[in-house]
Amino acid sequence: MEKQLKTISFTIIENGTRIPVVTRHGRYPNLMFLLKDELQLESFGECGGVGRCATCVIKTKGITGNSAIKDRNEPNTLAQLGFDEDNIRLSCQIYITADLNAAEISLMEV
Ligand code: FES
Fold this sequence. Notes:
Helix content is about 15%, strand content about 25%. By secondary structure, it is an alpha+beta fold. It is globular and about 40 Å long. The protein starts with 6 loop residues before the first strand and ends with a strand.
């Protein structure tokens, strides 16, 4: 029997355009790399995902589970920019898991 890979589906919103994404666990190290690749973004994720540069800020809706919790450098980096809302996140600190199914991810200008 063929092994089935579970897909993960969510929506990216860029400048009001809704872009459906279907991916799978392990294809990207984290959400920042997926966004950079899918949207071919320059100057996005400049620190490579360590949570220090804040060039990967996004607004989220519908993320569930452990992925909804800010951890490691994320709270401090966002606080330095004045963001304390739960739905403003560093995309490099979010792994591609089933927690993203049906979520909406909006790019932000920082
Ligand atoms: S890539 Fe630098 S904070 Fe996310």
